[in-house]
Design goal:
Elements (H helix, E strand, L loop, with lengths): L2 H32 L6 H10 L21 H17 L1
Length: 89
Amino acid sequence: MSARCNCQAEVLNKLVCVCVCVVDVIIVITVHHVYRGLTDESEILKFLQHGTLVGLLPVPHPILIRKYQANSGTTMWFRTYMWGVIYLR
């Protein structure tokens, strides 16, 4: 398994754990405080749709932008490539 797949699996695992905890809390609140029995699935879905997961996911790595720095190897490759294009046309 690659590092990218492992990272995605960790994110999904964390999301599932948080959602399970939220649903458990909703069920406990409705059963013990409202006394109306088990919570309807539509109520749980409505709560999850209007909830947020901000702060639960890991912060992505910053995008690094590097300036091109020429060296003798790339300069020679580019020069050879350009002369090849010129001669073949």
